[in-house]
Amino acid sequence: MSGKTLAGRPRVCVAVFVCVAAVALLLDQISKLWALSALSGGQSMRVIDGLLSFTLVRNPGASLGLGSNFTWVISILAMVACVVIVVLGLRTTSKAWAAMLGCAFAGALGNLVDRVSYADGFLNGKVVDFIDYGWSVGNVADIFLTVAGVAIVAMILVNVPFSDEAQSAESVASAEASASASAASSAPSELESSEQGSKAQ
Q1: What does the pLDDT look like over 55-78, one tens digit per residue?
Q2: Which residues pair with 52 in a beta bridge?
Q3: How many degrees, rounded to 5, is the angle at CA 153 between CA 150 and CA 157?
Q4: Would you name the residues annotated as active-site residues?
Q5: What is the spatial distance between Cα 108 and Cα 127, in angstroms, rounded to a whole number?
Q6: How far apart are CA 97 and CA 7, in angstroms?
Q7: Whether the predicted model's global pTM rises above the 0.70 cut
């Protein structure tokens, strides 16, 4: 029974990773197609006065427009990040980790799709941004990346195990520490008993 559970759990986590990534990527791409259609004339749609609006921007760089002259480098880094995230997503046995890695993968891939699809040179396509916060313009992929980043940091801080192996190793270490503490605390009692026996003789 336990073997079946351990064998089935990674498959569940892979399914969580794939489903979250697919849904998030679909939302990102649909929202960008809408922005290209509804905002292509240069108009801006207010959502919350002074706080949020929709304005189409084509961003060649990373967040806040950084690295605008090195779009192909950003594209290659995004490819590497996608591969690393997939590897991690296939290895984790935690549903929470799988879900957040799925969000991170969708965010990275969503913007990478833009850089490839709209390129007129080597991986130099511009990302479709349209969510205007006033101080920055982003997209749905950026939101998923941010959520994943914050959640992963939080899971690390509260020690959410990445895999069963990591949890087992932690349990073994804890058990060994407890055994050592018990042995240390019982040593004085044994010594005291030995001394009392010597006096009695």
Answers
A1: 999 988 665 555 556 678 889 999
A2: 48
A3: 135
A4: 129, 142
A5: 11
A6: 18
A7: yes
